[in-house]
Backbone:
């Protein structure tokens, strides 16, 4: 497929380029003292990460430890309640630890092991990345520091407990809004002091090169599996694939399986309480080009041009930018990015729970909500949702804030 001068037959060979750019987005805007560390990770990924032994071990881990492949489920009762459009879900909630995050965490921790590192450092918002990395660290016998904003620590208490049980050191971040952006700031600051003995395992397709590429590649197993499973199940491709987007790791991996197909690709951002700055985290819809956390993408800015305060009911989506590949796919028109608000998200959370016996993560509920809206507008066809995580971590918060519906 050739799409606006982009050859998707050779897309993964060409994007990102050798400097980490997807078009004009991406790159590595980092302090001089971190350039050697980033280069070390890049070279390790291009050499060790492509070796037969590394690939074979990662495949074994995915099968024997993670429980992959995760299934695709036909959401028959939800579909019937909406009309004639058939909804399906790629069940990353059934991946070990309950979300897609372990896909790249096991890859990053395995790379750290091959590089001879003793420790992994990361940030987390919803806690799923923190749990996944703590799991990977325990599996490989590595030390693990997880930086998390105090607001998210309170919202995601079950995941904080899981991280600690797994042996991770959870570092509370109280600066600024004390959410995901501040956790990333603190984790990068710590890494700059410890990079010789540790590796930074970023939790999404953001940050300086090679992280947007590396995380996407480790997550591409989701899209590869989903495409094969859906065509085997139905005999055709879905009309649309839908995933939630904060930083965008689950979406990048999921979308990668369908970029060269005649399939609509839709990312769903959090509109939160509304379109006013500070009430949402929909950077691709309302943001402008800017640099933060070492990469150039589309970001939400305040009056000074700095990262703006953001909000989402989902801790994993309250980030003021999105991965550079998403900015690129939006610019060339290959993927579309839309929004749903908190109320639509919570309604979808309860619909999926009651009609299908699947309690989704609040993050994933954004994708479910948008698929429900699409299904009501379409006369027929099929939509495949990436159900990126399960909602165990969110139940106490939802019951406290919204009650039982």
Residues:
């Amino acid at each position: 497929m050739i799409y606006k001068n982009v050859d998707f037959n050779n897309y993964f060979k060409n994007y990102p380029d050798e400097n980490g750019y997807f078009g004009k987005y991406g790159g590595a805007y980092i302090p001089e003292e971190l350039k050697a560390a980033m280069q070390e990770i890049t070279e390790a990924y291009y050499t060790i990460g492509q070796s037969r032994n590394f690939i074979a071990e990662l495949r074994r881990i995915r099968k024997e430890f993670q429980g992959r492949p995760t299934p695709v489920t036909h959401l028959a009762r939800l579909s019937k309640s909406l009309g004639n459009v058939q909804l399906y879900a790629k069940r990353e909630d059934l991946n070990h630890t309950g979300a897609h995050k372990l896909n790249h965490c096991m890859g990053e921790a395995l790379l750290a092991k091959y590089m001879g590192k003793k420790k992994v450092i990361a940030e987390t918002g919803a806690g799923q990345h923190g749990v996944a990395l703590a799991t990977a660290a325990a599996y490989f016998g590595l030390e693990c520091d997880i930086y998390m904003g105090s607001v998210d620590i309170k919202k995601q208490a079950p995941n904080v407990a899981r991280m600690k049980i797994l042996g991770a050191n959870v570092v509370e971040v109280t600066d600024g809004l004390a959410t995901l952006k501040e956790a990333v700031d603190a984790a990068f600051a710590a890494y700059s002091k410890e990079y010789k003995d540790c590796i930074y395992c970023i939790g999404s397709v953001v940050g300086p090169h090679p992280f947007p590429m590396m995380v996407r590649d480790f997550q591409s197993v989701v899209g590869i599996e989903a495409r094969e499973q859906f065509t085997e199940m139905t005999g055709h491709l879905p009309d649309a694939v839908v995933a939630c987007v904060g930083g965008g790791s689950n979406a990048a991996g999921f979308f990668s399986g369908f970029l060269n197909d005649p399939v609509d690709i839709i990312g769903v951002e959090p509109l939160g309480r509304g379109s006013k700055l500070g009430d949402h985290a929909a950077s691709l819809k309302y943001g402008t080009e800017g640099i933060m956390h070492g990469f150039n993408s589309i970001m939400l800015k305040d009056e000074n041009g700095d990262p703006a305060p953001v909000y989402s009911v989902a801790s994993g989506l309250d980030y003021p930018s999105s991965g550079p590949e998403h900015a690129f796919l939006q610019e060339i028109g290959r993927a579309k990015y839309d929004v749903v608000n908190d109320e639509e998200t919570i309604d979808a959370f309860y619909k999926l729970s009651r009609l299908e016996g699947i309690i989704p993560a609040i993050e994933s509920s954004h994708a479910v909500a948008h698929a429900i809206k699409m299904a009501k507008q379409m006369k027929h066809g099929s939509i495949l949702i990436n159900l990126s995580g399960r909602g165990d971590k969110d139940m106490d918060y939802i019951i406290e804030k919204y009650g039982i519906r």
About this structure: The CA atoms of residues 40 and 115 lie 9 Å apart. The chain has two domains: 31-63+101-211, 68-99+219-402.
